[in-house]
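Apologies for my clumsy wording, but can you show me some protein sequence, whichever is easiest, together with the matching C-alpha cells, please?
=====
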Amino acid sequence: MSDFALSSVLPGSAAALPAATAKSQDPAKIRDAAQQFEALLIGQILRSARESGSNWFSDGDDPSGEVATDYAEQQFATVMAQKGGLGLAGTIAKGLEPKLGR
C-alpha cells in the first residue's frame, strides 16, 4: 500500500490546491461563473421557447430580426441571472465555494 492519502485529491482540501488553483477559488469569481452559467441556461430556455413556434417577436423571415431577438434574449438572461434569476447561481456558488476552517 502506498502513502497516498485520499484527502490530498479531494476537492476543497488544502493539499489538492496548488497556488494558481487557490487564487481561482475567489468567492467573487465563483459567483460570477455561477451567474454566467445561469444566464446561459436562461438564454437556452428562452431560445427554446422562441424556436418552438411562438414567434413572439418576429415571424422568422427576417434574419436581422432573428439576430436582434438573439441579442435581446442574451441580455435579458444576463440581467435576470444578475438579479437572482432562477436562484441557481446562489446554489451553485455555495456548492463551489471552498469550505473555510477545514
Residues 26-96 form one domain. The CA atoms of residues 37 and 98 lie 19 Å apart.
